[in-house]
Structure formats: C-alpha cells, structure tokens
Amino acid sequence: MTHGQGAARLVLIAAIASLTPPPGFSAPHVTTRYVYFKAAGTTDAALFAAVRARGPLVSGKHAFARTRMKVSLSAKMARKGGQCAIRKLDFNLKFIISVPRATGKGRFSPALARRWQAFRKHLVWHEKHHCAIWLKCARQAEKRILRLHASNCPGLKRRMRAEYEQAMRKCDALHAAFDAREQRAILRRPFVRAALGLNRTRRASR
Predict the structure, then answer these.
(1) Which is nearest to 77 in space by CA: 162, 145, 167?
(2) CA torsion angle 191 193 197 199 (round to 10)
C-alpha cells in the first residue's frame, strides 16, 4: 500500500487581473477515480500471490494498492501598492486509486469471501486516508499561498510553486509515517495471516 510518492503533478496557471477583486479562495475541488487490476485464485495464498505479482508498481516493487494524485493550481493576481498579490486561488485535486479485483469470487468458500472482502475494504480505507492527508496538506498550502506577495507577478508565481512544493515535502513525511504504521498492522489482517500460514504457525507453537 502506498500513496504513490513522486506521482503528483502540479500545473500552475497564473492570470493577471486588471482590477483588484477582494482576496478569496475556494476549497480544493476533489475528484476520485478507481482503477482495478485482476487477481485470480480461489485460496488465500493464491490470491495473495496474484496481488503481489499484478499490483501497481511503486519504486520498482508491486504494491497491494496505490493512489496517484494530479494537481492543478490556478491563481488570479493583481498589482496594488507596488506589489503583486493573489486575489483568487483555485486548487483541483484528482486522485486515482488502484485496488485489486478478484476474478474467481463465485468459487470462494464463505470464509475466504469474508476475509477477502475485509482485506479489500481495508485497502480502500488505506488509500482514502492518503487522499485525506493530501487534502489537508493542500488546504494548509492554500492558506499560506494566499498570504504571499512579491514585487512582480512572475516572481509571485515562483513563490507559489516553492510554497506548494515545500508543503508536499512535509506531506510526504505524513504519508511515510502512516505507511510505516500500516506495514505492521497489515500482518494482523485475517486474509494476510491465512495467506502466509501464520495461523497454522501460531497453532503449532502452542
């Protein structure tokens, strides 16, 4: 599970306003799209192997799931008192979430169906949490960007980009901390324990 670090794309659009409307911002506009990859198998171990083999690549390794983010940031700027300032700012965030879809559910045992459904639900929750982290970071960046000003508007545009990139670097640390906690927690999922034979190991050690 990963948030797709380095997958975010920023598009900056600046428009110079001839008038000076009051400062303001709109909350980030968010869209989410799901894409699916196939996982074949009728046992925990087979499904787990399929997910590991076919999952989205992140840093050269297959992940259980992944979220990618694309960002467009547009600003209307105006000069006042010898300074260029932002009068309106719009954020657009697009999340693309990749999760597995089992192809043989009709042949699942009732127990496997419950474990798989719970595991997949957890993956979706995990990726949505990454989206929430990004959204919070975007809102914080938006407030800081609105306070920026510069002697010229091209310079202000550069400061906007620098402020956004700094916010995303801080956001990366939040994603990494969440993933670290989840790496430990994932081994407690019933589906993963059954796939890795951890339940049998635990019973044998008693």
Answers:
(1) 145
(2) -110
Whole-model pTM?
Answer: 0.80
Q: Quick check: helix, strand or coil at residue 30?
A: strand
- Say what the pLDDT of residue 184 is: 84
Provide the Cα torsion 130, 29, 139, 133; round to 10°: 0
Residue with tokens 């890795």: 196
Closest alpha carbon to 85 in 131, 9, 148 = 148
Nearest to 179 by CA among 3, 56, 52: 3
Partnered with residue 113 across adjacent β-strands are: none
The mean of the pLDDT values for the chain is: 84
Which stretches in the chain have pLDDT values below 50?
2, 4-25, 201-206
Q: What is the pLDDT of residue 135?
A: 92
Asked if 31 and 93 count as a contact pair (C-beta separation under 8 A), the reply is yes
Task: Give 117-125 contacts, CB < 8 A, sequence gap 24+.
Answer: 118/189, 118/190, 118/191, 119/189, 119/190, 119/191, 119/192, 122/189, 123/1, 123/64, 123/65, 123/99, 124/65, 124/97, 124/99
